[in-house]
Amino acid sequence: MSQHALLNSVEHSDLKVITQAGAEYGDNLWFTPTFPQEFRAVSAYYPIFFHKDPATDTFHAVALFGFTHNDNLFLDGDHWQAGYIPLSLRRQPFLIGRQRFKEDGMDKEQRVIHIDLAHPRVSRSQGEPLFLPLGGNSDYLDHMAELLETLHLGMEDGQDFVENLKRLALLEVVTLELTLNDGSQHQMVGFYTIDEARLAQLDGEILAELNRRGHLLAIYLAIASQSRMRDLLARKNQRLGL
Known about the structure:
Elements: E1 4-6, E2 16-17, E3 31-33, H1 39-43, E4 48-52, E5 59-64, E6 75-76, E7 79-80, H2 87-90, E8 94-103, E9 106-116, E10 122-123, E11 128-129, H3 139-167, E12 171-179, E13 185-194, H4 196-201, H5 204-212, H6 215-225, H7 229-239
């Protein structure tokens, strides 16, 4: 069970974070959320699809690591076999929280860093320290603060991106048919992709607006990234010794 707390140098002065990869640290996921500004880096290694959260009916762009739950084909022991790890995974065990305060009699809100004290990456004996011995943030914590800010702004834009895709009817459900080297077949359901036929029908004004927002490039990067399914299938065959 998660145990979120507002990070501070008094209560958490001796906390460290384990940064190595490993299933025991929560890395054995088959997909993770991503966002348009990250698509260029993500698409170099992973297929990008869209997933609908059944609990909220909201869509998110996701980077795909495998074909089933607990099936990260890029994770080999404590080694991640790709040159880029999406920020939504790298930010663990930190989260962005909101803190209300008063300034000049006005209610205001600021973003603050929370930490999940129950996360397996949190340690008091090994890993990267969060605070310096004489006080102040470590370089690692400052880096994570920048990462969290990038992730927060990126996910906000990602929701705007997905809302545009829905408004323009550019999302279509896709069933992925997979055939392994031994002839066995598997289906992946519940994912969505860009409706390329619908995209081709959009007029110049709409395309210009998508381009202005940076969303047209994201659309094409998402489409192009799906060629990475061949690599993912090859990794699955190798994992199974086929």
